[in-house]
Structures are given as structure tokens and as C-alpha cells.
Write a structure and sequence with these properties.
The chain has 402 residues and is of the alpha/beta class. The protein is built from 15 helices and 12 strands. It has a 6-stranded mixed β-sheet with strand order 2-3-1-4-5-6, sandwiched between helices. A 6-stranded mixed β-sheet has the order 9-8-10-7-11-12. It binds 6-O-phosphono-beta-D-fructofuranose.
């Protein structure tokens, strides 16, 4: 059995299936696992075109039912072709709400029947449903409908049709499954093991709806920044201190003081956070990339003394590991569980860290392709705000001092 996985979402409409699928896929890609979401709704819109109102989902209408099943087969077929090729974890995003459909998928996935992993989202929490409903009425299906009330009523009617036929996963279906009740309030796991499965499980265990912004910034200018020296544990300069003050003023203006602050364990980030009164979490996971034998050297000296290091780093900045130090891939590995931890706070978060660390975190939050991560430009004196939307984060940059 290969370690490829086909994740099949199961759940009523507005339970967070697309939110879960897209966030999970973004995380897996960032972790270096080739993942893709196959969304049946997208296929329906492309194949049938136009707008299908709630009546399309009336299960008593055999013609529409057949159309829907046909579309799901086309979508699933594309998924199988993709996983046969280079895909590692495919995510089939549809309601898959009846046993008959799940059984069809199980017996029509070729050699992958042992690789299917069903993820059922069960939600009775009104806030979660309302949140998803609000996302839904802004989705592709209602993009041309200016009338919010029409969209809400139509979507509620669609939910009612699904309510009539929905069948939760039962053990006699003999499926490998994870059932999430109100995201991670209660979790049931049946017959799930394996390395990639554990990673999927860790992500799902920590996933929540997040409505709060995340702020990322490098520390204020350090003595080493002045001299283009990498690594080390220098103090911040007067200009760095000016940034620390401005950062404090700006954050207090924008969101008062009810937010969580993370810094690394290095002086320059701790000093940048010093004007904030609240407790800070100092995490080694946020320390700058370790330059190994190049720590405390300037880029110019590295080039002169270790030309081979410079050349190799230029050739593959993502994978290049400083001798006795780290690579960008190592940083992703280091931050893989840190990003999951952030979900637990339910508050805005400010992370004061370092150049390479912010590049890697940004790669996760906005889904930057691996090879591009080391080349993001993260300027000093700039606060990055990530505002959550349905699948990832909208980004704004704010240069606080010149
Ligand atoms: O130059 C500041 C710094 O934070 C160094 O400590 C670190 O090695 C570097 O940035 C990371 O950026 P890059 O990978 O582009 O060299």
C-alpha cells in the first residue's frame, strides 16, 4: 500500500468542509506534501453553468440527482488521475452524504481502496453554522445575487433537502474515518494510522474557525543589521528602539491590548517587545535560521571566505543547509507544529521574529510555493497584517517608520 491518501469529506452543507479542505491542503503543501482539493461544487458550476437554486438539490428529483452523481464521478475521476500522477494527498470536497455514494467511491477508486480516509464534520454549534452560512452566501454560487436574504433563504432550503437524506458514517460501512464534532470538541477515529495520516490528524485536531488577525514583524533594526552581519544575538539600535515604540503605539491604537505576543528567545525580538505590558511567550522555535559556521559573519565576508557556500546557496536557497546550521526546509520542519498551536488562542496574535522565520510563516499563511519562500522580501520597520478570509489570509503591509 502506497502512502498516498485520498481524503473524502462528509458533511451537511455549511459545516466547514471547504474551509477544512482548503486550509488542510495549504498546510500539507507547505509541509512539502503535494496536495490538491477537488471540489464538486466547482465542477457543477463549470459543467452545468449558470445558477442552480436550492431545488436542484431536491433528492426527490431523479433527473437532478443523476446529474449531481454524474458530476461527482467526473470530479473523482480527475482526482484519481492526479493521484496516479504526482499527487500525494487528494481531498474530495463534497457532501458525500449518503452511504450509496461512499460505497461507490470505495469500490471505484482502483488500487486506492486502502488509501481512502473519510473525514466527517458534524456540527450542532449554531455559531459555527452561522459563520459558515455567512461564508457560503458570499461564495461562487451567490456571487451574482445582490440580495443577502435571498441567498440565505435559498441556502437554508438546500440544507433542509440534505437534512432529509443525510446518513452519518457507521461502522458497518467498513471505512477508515475521522469524525469531528464541532471541529475539535470531540473526535472519533477509526482505523487511522500512518505518517501522513498523523500529520493530517494533528492538523484537524487543532483546526478552528479563526476570525482574528495575525500580525507578523521582524525585530527593530539590530547592530548586525547595520553591518549586514547574519545571525548572532545582537541588541537593537536606536532606530530599532524607535520601531519598538511605534509598534507598541500602533498595536494599541488598532486593537487595544487584548492580544497574544510571541517573540523568539533572542535579544533583538525581546527588546522590540519591551514596551508591551502584557506577558510575552518567548519561543525558541522562532529563533532566526542558524547560519552554522557563517554565524556573525557579513554576507561580504562569507562570499570571500566561503565562496562555495555562497554559490551553493544561490543555486538552491530553499534546501541549502549552512554547515553546522540550518536550511529553509529545516525551518519549515521546526515551525510545523508551532503554526498549529496558534489556533488555540482565539485572540489576535503578534509575532515578533526574524527575516527567514517571517518568510517561512508567510509561506504558510498565504500559501507561497516552496521555491519562492526564501525570496519573499520582508523589510525591517514593517508590520504585516494577515486578515482571515474563507480559505486563507488577506495580507497588508504597513511601514511604521522610515
Ligand atoms: O540579515 C538578517 C537575517 O535575519 C540573518 O540573520 C539571516 O541569516 C538572514 O536574515 C536570512 O535571510 P536570507 O535567507 O535571505 O539570507
Amino acid at each position: 500500500m502506497s502512502n498516498k491518501i485520498i481524503i473524502i469529506l462528509v458533511g451537511m452543507p455549511a459545516r466547514g468542509k471547504s474551509y477544512t479542505s482548503n486550509n488542510l491542503s495549504r498546510y500539507l503543501n507547505w509541509c512539502g506534501i503535494n496536495s490538491k482539493v477537488f471540489n464538486c461544487g466547482d465542477y457543477r458550476r463549470k459543467i452545468i453553468g449558470g445558477f442552480q437554486d436550492a431545488n436542484f438539490f431536491d433528492f426527490n428529483n431523479q433527473e437532478n440527482f443523476n446529474k449531481k452523481e454524474e458530476i461527482s464521478k467526473i470530479c473523482f475521476n480527475d482526482l484519481i488521475n492526479w493521484i496516479d500522477d504526482t499527487g500525494e494527498i487528494a481531498i474530495f470536497d463534497a457532501t458525500n452524504s449518503i452511504k450509496e455514494r461512499r460505497s461507490f467511491l470505495k469500490y471505484n477508486c482502483g488500487k486506492y481502496s486502502d488509501n481512502l480516509l473519510f473525514v466527517e464534520l458534524i456540527t450542532n454549534n449554531k455559531d459555527i453554522i452561522l459563520n459558515n452560512l455567512n461564508l457560503k452566501i458570499k461564495s461562487q454560487d451567490y456571487v451574482n445575487s445582490r440580495d443577502k436574504k435571498f441567498a440565505t433563504d435559498d441556502f437554508k432550503k438546500r440544507i433542509a433537502f440534505y437534512n432529509n437524506i443525510y446518513q452519518t458514517i457507521e461502522d458497518n460501512e467498513n471505512l477508515r474515518y475521522i469524525k469531528l464534532i464541532n471541529f475539535n470538541e470531540k473526535i472519533f477515529i477509526n482505523n487511522v494510522f500512518g505518517i501522513n495520516e498523523s500529520l493530517v490528524m494533528s492538523y484537524l485536531m487543532n483546526l478552528k474557525l479563526n476570525n482574528f488577525p495575525i500580525y507578523l514583524t521582524r525585530h527593530g533594526q539590530s547592530e548586525n543589521n547595520l553591518n549586514m552581519i547574519i545571525g548572532g544575538d545582537p541588541n537593537i539600535t536606536n532606530l530599532g528602539d524607535k520601531y519598538a515604540k511605534e509598534l507598541h503605539r500602533h498595536m494599541c491604537n488598532e486593537i487595544s491590548d487584548d492580544f497574544v505576543i510571541f517573540t523568539s528567545c533572542l535579544n533583538r525580538t525581546i527588546q522590540t517587545a519591551k514596551y508591551f505590558k502584557q506577558d510575552k511567550i518567548h519561543s525558541r522555535l522562532l529563533n532566526e535560521i542558524h547560519g552554522g559556521i557563517c554565524e556573525n559573519m557579513s554576507y561580504k565576508d562569507i562570499e570571500q571566505i566561503y565562496p562555495k557556500i555562497c554559490k551553493e546557496r544561490k543555486e538552491d536557497k530553499l534546501r541549502f543547509r549552512y554547515p553546522q546550521g540550518e536550511s529553509y526546509i529545516d525551518l519549515i520542519e521546526r515551525l510545523k507544529y508551532f503554526v498549529l498551536e496558534l489556533n488555540k488562542y482565539n485572540k489576535p496574535i503578534l509575532i515578533i521574529a526574524h527575516n527567514a522565520i517571517i518568510k517561512v510563516l508567510l509561506g504558510y499563511f498565504i500559501g507561497i510555493k516552496h521555491d519562492k519562500i526564501p525570496y519573499s522580501e520582508i523589510e525591517l520597520n514593517t508590520l504585516i497584517r494577515l486578515t482571515p478570509n474563507s480559505h486563507n489570509y488577506a495580507i497588508t503591509y504597513n511601514k511604521l517608520i522610515n
